[in-house]
Design a protein that fits this description.
Layout (H helix, E strand, L loop, with lengths): L10 E3 L2 H4 L13 E3 H11 L2 H12 L2 H14 L22 H14 L4 H4 L4 E6 L2 E5 L1
Antiparallel strand pairs: 1-2, 3-4
């Protein structure tokens, strides 16, 4: 998928790799699909590593390719003290950044993608409303 072609209503399917993520997650099951909008909510509200990896694979075909794109974008923003080793931010050797670089990235996000605040300012929401179960964020 080419960047810019992604729609909030597009479905993203969870791979076995994404379903096996550790850390903070919403416990996606292999082959479970959520919309991009639902993924963004889970990522912004719950730091859902499984959703981050599913989105990375959807956008770039693999985590490795997505991380390459992340590092290229970081360099283009002037983030000289940043080196991404994964897409989710879990500890890994040589995965690093600085407060200044995070400020550069945040400025880019807020100036050029202000709709992100539709997700980062949510206090509480629900996802996967199912009979007898709901995933709530608070």
């Amino acid at each position: 998928m080419i960047i810019g072609e992604l729609k909030l209503t597009d479905n993203v399917t969870c791979s076995a790799n994404a379903a096996s993520m550790g850390g903070s997650q919403i416990w996606l099951e292999e082959n479970e699909s959520l919309t991009v909008e639902e993924m963004l909510k889970a990522i912004c509200l719950n730091s859902a590593n499984d959703c981050v990896l599913a989105m990375a694979e959807h956008l770039a075909g693999s985590e490795e390719e997505f991380v390459t794109r992340m590092n290229n974008k970081a360099k283009s923003l002037g983030m000289h003290d940043t080196n991404f080793k994964n897409c989710h931010g879990l500890d890994e050797d040589e995965h690093l950044t600085s407060a200044y670089d995070i400020a550069l990235m945040s400025r880019e996000l807020l100036i050029n993608h202000p709709s992100i605040t539709n997700y980062t300012t949510i206090y509480m929401d629900e996802l996967r409303r199912r009979k007898n179960s709901a995933c709530k964020y608070k």
